[in-house]
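Give me structure tokens for this 717-residue protein.
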Amino acid sequence: MSLGIGFGAERLGLAAIRWPKTASALLFALITLIAASLPQLRFDDDIHRVFLTDSPVSQAQIAYRDAQSPPTSTVLAYIKADQAFSAAQLTRLRDVTLDLEFLDGVIAVASPFALRFTPSADAAKGTPVFSAEILNNYGADIAAFRDLGTGLPTFINEERTAILIAIRVNLEHAEIADSLPVIKAEFATLPEGLSVVFTGEEVISLEIVAGLKDDLIALNLWGALLVCFAALVLLRDVRMVVLAAVPALLGAASVLALSVWLGYPINVLSNVIPILLLVLGVADGVHLAGHLKASGKGARAAVMRIGPACALTALTTSLAFACIMLTRNAQLFEFAVLGALGTLLAFGVMITAFALLALVIRPSARAAPQFASAFAVRLAETGLCWPRGVVLGALALLLLSGIGYQQTKAWFPLYQNLPQGSETVHVNDAIAKDFGGVFQMIIEVEQDWASTAVLVAQLTRIAGPEAVLSQVGIARWLGHEARPSPADLSTVPANLIAQLSPSQSVDRIFISVPEPMRDAAAFELFDRLQNAALEGGATRVFGLPSVMRHEAVRLISQLSFSLVLAALGASLIVALAFGSLRLFPLLLVPNVLPLMVTGASLHVWAAGQLSPTAVLALTIAFGIAIDDTVHFLNRFYHARGHGETASGAVRSAAHSAGQVMVLTTVLLSFGLAVTMLSDFFPIRLFGGMMIVTLWAALVFDLLLLPALLGKRESVDA
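Here you go.
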């Protein structure tokens, strides 16, 4: 017996119809397991996983983090004053920094109050820049320290309206989520006129996780309600809505449980998978319920007739997810695995639940809305009447949009992963303006001291004063031009020296920089610093800024290859499913064209920036866009099998499948529109691009596909 275009997957539904009690028991057990698993959902709190791959830059960053003993994280407190700090305000802030040093788990605190002048015979560790009693003329003391020419950070800006306090925390003692509230409590009673905001790599991660938890609930709750409401308005049949929505809801919930079973945490990317599979499940449910309603032949006939096409669409969507596994990023790999397996699991749950419900629920006799059928038929007739013009126009549009897509620029800013309205984004910008930046660029050198000193001077000229921390700066503070001896360095905190000189042959230079892809200026600054470092003899340049700068481009390149593979693979599978390789080129144009149009539209709504999220959206959208093609071809070949000519079969498919294609696209759009409510730009971008692609795919499937099929009278049914 032939497996058919669905490769036999629809037999899950047929089995449920044949053994309804057993299927109901198994489905109930699965639902119970899903419900028990949902409270165990985890959220990804490692900001590095967004970018890291297996490249040398990523491996250097991973090795650096693994070598930290104990593992540490730095919390940055940015204190802003309405006007120049008063002596009383500074005195209170100094008390806060002293209290911070006594907190459990705090290893070190860097602030203006830790500054000391060059050691002398009278003061072996140097005289504090701020005297025991801070006076209003403290600005002169800060200026005197800067005049030493060390280049070491003072942690207070030139206008004396902002102070940066760096609190280094031992992660073995407590996670940042536990330490941060304790740290914040020390700043609870700041003097009037002062405000404080916290940032840092792990602090940013915490903010993302907190936003994700709220976002996940909102997206799935409102998405489900919106899809059900839209289905009720469009279909005007409560029983049909139940048949379409309930199985889809169970399928989407199963994907969340699958993330628990796989041990994968939810992140900004995977957060969108449940709502995506929810709307896809509803679309399949509408196709199934629509046939059940139109034919009146019962559940078995609906599953046998429409189930194979639904199975094939699940397979193409799963393949699109699977192609993303080719990337070397752990977070994207997990996204791909969860999406690929989740799509298949959701289909299995959906087809089983639909079959069981269809045994007891029959849609009403009320006719479906005719606007969808009229729209589909009109487009198909246009394609049939003017096939040459439609095809030439489509090819011209494909060429123009392809050129537009090629003009996009690989760009992956971290700040876009923060919730909308995040104060952290503005604080990071302020820190970049006043202190160089939040993130640490790390440069390792293995060369003579003189060459290292020249390199530090060059980097300081580019990065700005007080943005570069190195042993050269420590030496100048000690009053030496040569490399300081271990005895000289005994006055400097040992953990700082260990960071700056991890071995006798290696020196490290730390540069505070803004996020490299914050804007064009930050991008240019990073590249200038990196080029200067490499030209100056640096052995390695790494750190989170390096990872953000280079891995973004690498990931986008890998994802673009996945997009091409998904397009070719999905088209080939559909062609093989219908038993005609001649369909392969015919499938590519109507389904690649929407992707190019959407990709080119990034110039309008994303400043021409091509992010990993954008390429992901295009990849998954292709796997979904080809779903309409599958349903159209399914009806087309069915009509051809009953003796219709190619043009007649196109009209038949446009009337039957086209009507449902329009309705499901409207429903998908309503469901994905909920992503516009997300606090995260990547999720809004993902949803928006999906909607644009789906509508473009609908138009081209109903316009271009009839033009191509109508000219192929020789195509076998």
